[in-house]
Write a structure and sequence with these properties.
heterotrimer; A mainly alpha (358); B alpha/beta (518); C mainly alpha (184); A: 358 residues; mainly alpha; 18 helices; C: 184 residues; 3-methyladenine DNA Glycosylase II, Chain A, domain 3; Alpha-Beta Plaits; two-stranded antiparallel sheet; two-stranded antiparallel ribbon; 35% helix
Chain lengths: 358, 518, 184
C-alpha cells in the first residue's frame, strides 16, 4: 500500500449510490412531466429548462464559493431533482424571472446556506415555491387551461418564447383557475360545492390531467405510477405516501359525511392539487424526512392533516407546500424522540432484565 | 424447528463459488515460521524457548500468562531462529513480539499429550486439556476457548450452539471442514457439551450450505440432544448474539454474555480442534483457511501451519493475477487489511482475500442524504447516520448515548450506504477514542495518586527528620547534663573522666547521609 | 409617539435598575470554578504551562487569563474538556496533538547525582547516589522536569511509540467527490 491514509472496511458494497437514487426518482417523474410539458406547450418547456438550468448554475456558484468540488455534486442529480420538482410546481406559463428567482431561492436559501447536500432542514423546492407564492402572488396564481402542443390552440415556439421573456399574454382570455382555487373562491362567495364542483369536477380528466394547474398537479395517474415504481425499486418506502394520503382521505371523507355542501369528498382532495405529487415525491425527500419507519408514519399523518386544514380553513387554496415545510420543521424532533429500540435494551435505553440471574 | 427473526441484516453476494468446491489441501511445510506471542484475546503468552533451541512439532514454545491467555506450540520441528519483533498481522503493521522458527523439513512430533476419553474425564479435565492445547475461537474472535468452557461453573447453561453459519462472502473454510470432517466436528461438539455440562447442542448452518447440512446431520444422527439446524442466509447471522436470537428467540441483554441467557456459542472449527486435542493429544498448530478473491490465480481452501507468512500461502495459490485493490485477512465485511504480506497467519485468521476494485464496488464518498437505509439494515437497532455525524464532530460521548458501544462493526450500514460513507471506520475510530480517553484518564488518576503519595512521603520524611533532630537534641542535652553532673561529682574526687564527647557528631553525619538517599 | 417613547424609556430604566441591584446584592462570592478546574488538571505540578503549579493555572483559567490549550500533558482531551467547562468555543482540530513522550536516561552519561529523582513529581525515576538512574515508563508523565535539571544532559524525551494494543483506527477523512487513494 502507498502512504495513503488507511481506509477501513468493509470492502464490499451493494450497487446503490446517490446518483442511482436521484436518477431513478427523475425517471419516475418523467412520464408525468413529459405529459405536462406536452399539455402546456413550449412556454412550459422553456420554464422547465430555465428553472433547472438556474438551479444548476446557482449550485455551481455556491460550491465554488464554498471551495467544494463542483462536478461530483452537480452531476449526482440532486440539484437537477430540486429544480425539476420546483419547475413542475410552478404555474406552467409563469414568466422567466419566476424560474430564475425560484432557482436562486431553492438552491441558495433552501440548501446551500445550510451546508449543502444532506444538511438542509426544509425541502428546497418547497421553500422556493412558498417564497415565490408569497412574494409574487399574481404571477404564481395565474393558471391557464391546457393548450396542448401541436393542437389548434398551441401558440407555437416563436410566440411562446416571446411570451416567456416579454409577457404579453392576454391572461384574462385564457386564464382558468385550478379546481381548488375555483372551489375556494366560490365558497367564499357563498356558493356551495354542488354548484362549483358540478361544472368543473371531472374525475377522469383530473386523473389523466387535462385540467388547469401546475404540471405536477394535473396527471394523477402518471404520478401514482411513478410513485409505485419508486416504491418497487425501494428508493422510497410506502409509509409516508400511505400515511399522508390516508389521513387526507379520512379527514375529507369524515367532513364530507357531515356536510357535503361545504366540504369536498376524499376523491376530490386526492385527485386535485399537488396531493399526489407531494405524497410520492416531495414529502418523501430523504434529507428532510425522518429516518425511521415509525417516524415516517407520524410525518405522513402530520402532512395529511395540515394539507386538509390549510385547504379547508386556511387562506390559500392549496396547502401541500406549507404542510410539507411545517412537517420538515418537526422532522428533527421526530427523529430525536422516535428512535428504534437498541438490541439488548428496552425502549428507554436500559439493558433488558435477565429473567433468571445465575 | 421454529426459528425467530432478527432485525436488519443484508444479503451480500456470497461469491463462495470461487472456492466452495475445492477440497482442503495441506500446505507443504514452509521454510520459515513466525509465531506471534499473542494470537488471542487476553495476555500475550510468555516464551519458554530462546534463540538456538531445537523444537519439535507440538512442543510448547510459549506458555499462557494469567487466566485469560493461551499457550503457543511449535507447528513443526526446527530450530528457533530468533525471538523478537516482527510485523504483526494487523492493519497498522506495527511490530509484535514473535518467535521465528527455521523448519528442518522433518516435521517430527514431540511428546503428545495423553489421549483423554471424554466419557470418563471430568469437565474440568476437558477444559484444562483445551487450555493446554492453546485452542482459541477460530471463527475470528480468538477468545481462549477454555475460558468459555469454564463458564459452566459460573452461569446456568442449557445449550451449546455451534456456529457453522459462515455468513461472510468468499469464506468457505468452515463449509469444507463440515463436509470433509463431520465426525471430528460432531465429536468435538460432544466433548465441549460435556465440558460445559449441557445436554442440548444446536449446530447452526446457513441454508446456502446444503451439503454441509447433509453431512453434519448424518454424522449427528445417533447423538442424543444434538440437532443440526439450517438458519436463513443473512449477514450477520454468524454474530453470536443474533444467532442465539434466531435459534432461541431470546435477546442477550446489553452488557451481558450469551451465557447469561444460558447459551454458549463456539465455532465449528474450534470443535474440530477440541476433538484433535482430546482424542489425539494434538495442540492447535494448524488451521483451514480460504484463499479467495478476484485477484487470486487459484482460489482454494488450505490447511496451513500457524505462523506461515501470507505471501508464501499466496504463492502456493499461484499468486495474484493483478495487483489487488485490497489484500485482507478475514471476510470482506469485517476483515482487516493486511499491512505487510510478510506477516504471519495466526490462529484466528480464517481467510485471505485479494480483491479487485470492481469486486469492492467502491465509489467516491458523497454527503449523507439521510436516506435511512443504514437504519433499516442495522441488526442492533442503532441509527448509524446519527452516530457517524456525532463522531465526525468529535462528540463521542453523545454518540455513546445513542448506542455506539452496542455496535458490532458488522458493516451492514456501510454496505448499503448510497453515499459510500466510511461509517464503520467512524465507529471504530469512536470506539478507539473511548479506549484511549479511558486510558488517559486512568493515567491521570495514577499520576495524581503518585504525586500526592510523594508529597505525603516527603512530609513524612520532614517529620521524621524533625523528630530525629529533636530526639538527638534531647539526648545531647541529657548527655551534657549527665556529663556536667559527672564532672561535678568527679570534681569532688579530682578524677575527671574524659567521656568522648565527639561520639555524638559522627553519628549524626551518618543519619543525614541516610536521609539524603531516601 | 410620546407614549411609545415614554413607555420604552420607563421600561429601560426599570429593568436596568433591577439588573444593577442584582449585580450588587445577588453576586456570587468566590469562584467554585477554580476548584473544579484544578480537579481536571493532571496534578503533577510540572510547570510546562508556565504557571508554578496546577493551582495557579486553574485560577488563571477560571478568570480567562490562560488559554485552555495550556497543558501539554493533558493534550487535546483536556483542552476540549476545559473548553466545555468554561463555555469557550474552540477549534480543536487545529491543535497539534503533542505526542506523549517518556523520559529516557542515557546510561552511559548518567553520573548518579540523584538530582532528577528528587525533582520527579510522580517518583518515576529510580536510582541511588553514584548509581545509574532509570525511568519507570508507565508512571512517567513527560513533564520534562528531570531533563531540565540533569547536569550531564543525559535525559531525553522520546516519543511514546504506538503499539498494537494502543493503536486505533484513524478518523476517516471524507472529501466528497474524491475517491479514496488506493494502492492500485
Amino acid at each position: 500500500m502507498t502512504g495513503a491514509p488507511l481506509m477501513g472496511g468493509p470492502y464490499a458494497h451493494d450497487n446503490s449510490s446517490v446518483r442511482r437514487t436521484m436518477g431513478l426518482v427523475l425517471l419516475a417523474l418523467t412520464p408525468a412531466t413529459a405529459y405536462g410539458l406536452y399539455l402546456f406547450g413550449w412556454q412550459a418547456v422553456f420554464l422547465f429548462s430555465l428553472t433547472i438550468g438556474a438551479c444548476v448554475l446557482f449550485e455551481a456558484l455556491s460550491l465554488a464559493i464554498a471551495r467544494k468540488p463542483i462536478w461530483p455534486f452537480v452531476s449526482d442529480g440532486s440539484v437537477i431533482l430540486t429544480g425539476w420538482l420546483l419547475a413542475v410546481s410552478l404555474p406552467p406559463w409563469a414568466p422567466w424571472w419566476i424560474g430564475l428567482v425560484g432557482g436562486l431561492l431553492a438552491v441558495i436559501v433552501g440548501k446551500q446556506i445550510f451546508g449543502g447536500l444532506g444538511q438542509n432542514v426544509f425541502n428546497p423546492a418547497m421553500v422556493a415555491r412558498v417564497a415565490l407564492l408569497i412574494s409574487f402572488p399574481l404571477e404564481m396564481t395565474r393558471y391557464t387551461a391546457p393548450q396542448p402542443m401541436f393542437s389548434a390552440t398551441d401558440p407555437g415556439i416563436a410566440e411562446s418564447l416571446s411570451r416567456f421573456f416579454f409577457g404579453g399574454l392576454d391572461f384574462d382570455a385564457v386564464s382558468s383557475a385550478s379546481l381548488l382555487g375555483h372551489v375556494k373562491t366560490e365558497l367564499s362567495r357563498g356558493v356551495g360545492l354542488g354548484e362549483s364542483l358540478g361544472s368543473s369536477y371531472d374525475p377522469l380528466s383530473l386523473s389523466i390531467g387535462s385540467v388547469a394547474g401546475s404540471m405536477g398537479e394535473t396527471s394523477a395517474l402518471l404520478i401514482v405510477l411513478g410513485g409505485l415504481f419508486l416504491i418497487f425499486k425501494r428508493i422510497i418506502s410506502w409509509h409516508i405516501p400511505v400515511a399522508m394520503l390516508g389521513t387526507l382521505a379520512l379527514l375529507a371523507a369524515f367532513f364530507h359525511l357531515i356536510d357535503p355542501v361545504h366540504y369536498m369528498g376524499a376523491d376530490v382532495h386526492l385527485l386535485s392539487g399537488a396531493a399526489l405529487l407531494g405524497a410520492f415525491f416531495i414529502a418523501t425527500d430523504p434529507v428532510t424526512s425522518p429516518v425511521t419507519r415509525k417516524g415516517q408514519i407520524v410525518f405522513g399523518i402530520g402532512c395529511g392533516l395540515l394539507v386538509y386544514v390549510i385547504r379547508t380553513w386556511g387562506g390559500y387554496p392549496e396547502g401541500v407546500a406549507f404542510a410539507v415545510l411545517l412537517m420538515n420543521a418537526m422532522a428533527p424532533l421526530i427523529d430525536r424522540t422516535m428512535r428504534p429500540r437498541v438490541y439488548g435494551r428496552t425502549k428507554k435505553g436500559a439493558p433488558i432484565a435477565l429473567e433468571d440471574k445465575p | 424447528m421454529k426459528l425467530f427473526k432478527i432485525r436488519g441484516g443484508v444479503h451480500p453476494e456470497g461469491r463462495k463459488r470461487l472456492s466452495a468446491h475445492k477440497e482442503i489441501e495441506i500446505l507443504p511445510v514452509p521454510d520459515l515460521l513466525h509465531i506471534p506471542f499473542r494470537q488471542h484475546v487476553g495476555e500475550p503468552a510468555e516464551p519458554v524457548v530462546q534463540r538456538g533451541d531445537r523444537v519439535l512439532k507440538g512442543q510448547v514454545i510459549a506458555k499462557a500468562k494469567g487466566p485469560v491467555s493461551a499457550p503457543v506450540h511449535a507447528p513443526t520441528s526446527g530450530r528457533v531462529l530468533a525471538v523478537g519483533a516482527f510485523t504483526a498481522p494487523h492493519p497498522s503493521g506495527l511490530p509484535a513480539r514473535t518467535i521465528h522458527i527455521l523448519t528442518d523439513g522433518k516435521d517430527e512430533w514431540g511428546e503428545r499429550m495423553p489421549v483423554l476419553d471424554p466419557d470418563t474425564a471430568s469437565p474440568a479435565e476437558l477444559a484444562q486439556r483445551v487450555a493446554d492445547a492453546g485452542i482459541v475461537g477460530m471463527g475470528g474472535a480468538a477468545f481462549p476457548s477454555s475460558v468459555k468452557l469454564n463458564l459452566g461453573e459460573r452461569y446456568k447453561l442449557h445449550t451449546l450452539v455451534i456456529n457453522g453459519a459462515e455468513c461472510e462472502p468468499y469464506l468457505t473454510c468452515d463449509d469444507r471442514v463440515m463436509r470433509e470432517r463431520p465426525e471430528q466436528a460432531i465429536d468435538g461438539c460432544r466433548i465441549m457439551a460435556k465440558a460445559l455440562g449441557v445436554e442440548k447442542v444446536m449446530i447452526a448452518i446457513e441454508t446456502n450450505k446444503p451439503e454441509a447440512i447433509e453431512t453434519m446431520t448424518a454424522a449427528a444422527r445417533n447423538v442424543a440432544g444434538m440437532t443440526v439446524i439450517g438458519v436463513p442466509t443473512r449477514y450477520p447471522m454468524g454474530s453470536e448474539k443474533h444467532l442465539v436470537q434466531t435459534l432461541t428467540g431470546k435477546e442477550t441483554p446489553s452488557g451481558c454474555l450469551t451465557a447469561d441467557i444460558g447459551v454458549v456459542v463456539h465455532n465449528v472449527a474450534t470443535a474440530c480442534a477440541v476433538n484433535e486435542a482430546v482424542r489425539r493429544g494434538k495442540p492447535l498448530i494448524s488451521r483451514v483457511v480460504t484463499i479467495s478473491g478476484g485477484a487470486i490465480a487459484k482460489p482454494r481452501n488450505i490447511q496451513v501451519p500457524i505462523g506461515v507468512s501470507i505471501e508464501s500461502v499466496l504463492e502456493y495459490c499461484g499468486g495474484t493475477t493483478e495487483k489487488p485493490a485490497r489484500l485482507m485477512m478475514g471476510g470482506p465485511m469485517m476483515g482487516q487489511p493486511v499491512a505487510d504480506p510478510r506477516s504471519p497467519m495466526v490462529k484466528g485468521c480464517n481467510g485471505i482475500l485479494a480483491l479487485t476494485l470492481e469486486e469492492t464496488r467502491q465509489r467516491p464518498a458523497s454527503a449523507c442524504i439521510r436516506c435511512g437505509s443504514c437504519v433499516q439494515v442495522c441488526p442492533c437497532g442503532l441509527v448509524p447516520l446519527d452516530m457517524a455525524a456525532r463522531i465526525r464532530n468529535e462528540e463521542i460521548d453523545s454518540a455513546v448515548e445513542i448506542g455506539l458501544t452496542e455496535c458490532l462493526s458488522c458493516g451492514s450500514c456501510n454496505y448499503v450506504c448510497p453515499a459510500h460513507l466510511p461509517l464503520v471506520q467512524y465507529f471504530n475510530y469512536g470506539k478507539g477514542r473511548i479506549k484511549a480517553i479511558a486510558a488517559e484518564k486512568r493515567k491521570q488518576e495514577e499520576t495524581k495518586r503518585l504525586a500526592e503519595a510523594r508529597i505525603v512521603r516527603l512530609e513524612e520524611q520532614m517529620r521524621a527528620k524533625k523528630a530525629m533532630l529533636a530526639k538527638r537534641k534531647a539526648e545531647a542535652e541529657a548527655r551534657a547534663k549527665a556529663k556536667a553532673e559527672a564532672e561535678a561529682a568527679a570534681a569532688g574526687n579530682e578524677n575527671a573522666e574524659a567521656a568522648p564527647k565527639s561520639e555524638a557528631k559522627p553519628a549524626s553525619n551518618d543519619n543525614e547521609k541516610e536521609e539524603a538517599q531516601a | 409617539m410620546i407614549t411609545a417613547i415614554s413607555a420604552l424609556t420607563v421600561l429601560g430604566v426599570v429593568l436596568g435598575g433591577l439588573l444593577g441591584l442584582a449585580a450588587r446584592y445577588l453576586r456570587v462570592e468566590g469562584n467554585p470554578l477554580i476548584g473544579e478546574i484544578e480537579e481536571m488538571l493532571p496534578g503533577s505540578q510540572c510547570g510546562q504551562c508556565g504557571y508554578p503549579g496546577c493551582s495557579p493555572a486553574a485560577e488563571a483559567l477560571a478568570v480567562g487569563e490562560a488559554e485552555v490549550t495550556l497543558c501539554p500533558p493533558g493534550g487535546r482531551a483536556l483542552a476540549g474538556a476545559l473548553a466545555a467547562k468554561l463555555g469557550i468555543v474552540i477549534d480543536l482540530s487545529a491543535l497539534e496533538e503533542k505526542l506523549p513522550a517518556i523520559a529516557y536516561v542515557n546510561e552511559d552519561l548518567c553520573i548518579g547525582c540523584t538530582r532528577c529523582f528528587q525533582k520527579c513529581p510522580t517518583d518515576a525515576l529510580l536510582g541511588a547516589p553514584k548509581q545509574v538512574h532509570t525511568v519507570i515508563a508507565e508512571i512517567c508523565t513527560g513533564c520534562e522536569e528531570c531533563m531540565n535539571i540533569c547536569p550531564t544532559e543525559c535525559i531525553e524525551m522520546l516519543p511514546l511509540k504506538p503499539t498494537v494494543a494502543t493503536w486505533h483506527w484513524p478518523k476517516p477523512e471524507v472529501k466528497p467527490g474524491k475517491a479514496e487513494p488506493l494502492a492500485a
